[in-house]
Design brief:
137 residues; 7 helices; 4-stranded mixed sheet; 4 strands; alpha+beta
């Protein structure tokens, strides 16, 4: 694998909004959970068994999961790249990683609320009249 890949829940309007934002502002390849079976099997093999519990950024160096995946994806964007030195220093602060993951989990667990503010039709639901996954959670 040479191209970093952001793997996300493409059945969630809030998640889709973030994935599209990152796609527009970075060179990351974006792959939804529903497309993983069509991908190179090595990508799925590198993900944790419970991969559907959060997003993941898969690189040659490793796999960033949950809050770490969004943080790393954002510092790979045109806007976020300027923050990389600060983020690299923060990663050395013991409580920072715990705070980042706590924040990610609070936001992810409340996607129904955040999806009312920031949402796009998820690829897995295009042409589908069912409610978006983040509306039901």
């Amino acid at each position: 694998m040479t191209e970093p890949v952001l793997v996300y829940d493409d059945d969630c309007g809030f998640c889709t909004w973030w994935a599209d934002l990152i796609d527009e502002r970075s060179d990351l390849r974006i792959v939804g959970f529903s497309d993983l079976e069509d991908e190179d099997p090595s990508l799925l093999e590198r993900l944790p068994n419970d991969y559907e519990s959060c997003s993941h950024l898969v690189t040659d160096e490793g796999v960033y999961s949950c809050g770490a995946s969004i943080e790393e994806a954002l510092v790979r964007t045109d806007l976020g790249s300027r923050a990389r030195p600060a983020v690299d220093r923060l990663r050395d602060v013991g409580a920072y990683g715990s705070a980042r993951e706590w924040t990610y989990r609070r936001i992810a667990d409340n996607r129904a609320f955040w999806g009312k503010l920031l949402s796009k039709t998820p690829p897995a639901r295009e042409g589908d009249s069912r409610p978006k996954a983040d509306d039901a959670r």
